[in-house]
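Page 37, top half.
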Amino acid sequence: MLKIKKLTSRSSSKGIIDNIDLVCPTGKIHAIIGNKDAGKSTLLDIIGSRTCADSGVVYIDGETIKSLGEQYRSFVGFLFLSEAICCRLTSDEYLDMLGAMYGVSDRIRKAKVEYLVESLNLPNEGYVDSFSYDDQKKLKLAATLVHSPRYLVLYEPLDGVSTATKRVMSDVLRDLAMNGTTILYTTSHIDCLDEVADLVSIIDAGKIIYKSYYMELKKIIAKDCIQDTSSLVHTFNGI
């Protein structure tokens, strides 16, 4: 289980977060949706120890990330806000390199890379720096998976991709969750929730303003004809 308790940061250039409580149960997918500068990237940066919170605690399997030190990176896969991947390697060469850096054995690494390239329908020809936007997004997701982490913490993995690519990536995420992987991801788009999220938290100005199971939220979205994230945030502000 991933648990966040009273997390606050008012010093990040990426947006504040204010007294956030959040739980992502084992084997579930928890989406955090909000507009730009709502605090999503700050939250993920703190979970990934890229920046420090002013107060509050992040727990993984009942242990604080501070007490776990660097070892928790061996069982968590991170995808942060980042630029395109630029290197003169093919997709399998790139993933193999990352797997080696994580210390994955040759035999397991070979099988894992083959699985990721096939399941995410990655190009097996051409260098990754020439990949399309969609293929870069799939490759970034694959890069979080080479060491078979038990947890995934992902910044907007599905945002901006085509419907076909979203379906491929969503299928991989759902399959991972069904096999026990715990996933926390952010998004700025309502259509990145459907058929992926089990639970949803709405964030605005650094505060969680609503959280529920996605199926409950989906009923409200349909009933109120909510079509975008700004309207979604407006609906729950002040409740």
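Page 37, bottom half:
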Amino acid sequence: MRETLITGSVHGTHDHGGERDRRDQRDRRRAREFEAYVAGAGGRLLHAAALLTGEPPGHAPEAEQLLVTALARTYAGWHGLRGEDPYDHSRQELVLLYHNTGWRYRRSRGGLLGPLSPQERLVVVLRLHEGIAEQQVAALLGLPLERVHALCLRGMATVLSTPRTPEPPDHPWWHPRRRPRQPVAP
């Protein structure tokens, strides 16, 4: 009995309290690291997600859902990212989720890239917003290099040829009769 009090073991059973404490500390540290990462990278990832879904900034519920799912997957593999860039991992999760569900985003939702097809949007965002080389985009999406190049060119041609419409009237600052103030002459 005295041995049990000193070593905490009886017939091969061990007190795992210390191990549990270390695991809890590791989990808390992991959560803090992830929260700091999301605070720093979340805005840029949300912007990329809104461009992908074709939703306008400020009203992008589908982009938010896409991002939450991508971040949940990133968090699930957080401990295995040793030495890897978590932003690259999150972006890859976001891209794969979008790529697998792109059919949901066919109709335009009023965003800048809304007129593009889902595949054009994906290539334009990766190439121009994220700055990823064509070869890397082709490898990530499993497409020939020529196809990635053509999608990017066609997407940009569509964006540049689409007439811009004024902001909708539900913005508080918008009024059809509002004109810029002219400076008063002295």
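Margin note: Confidence is low (pLDDT under 50) at residues 1-9, 171-181.
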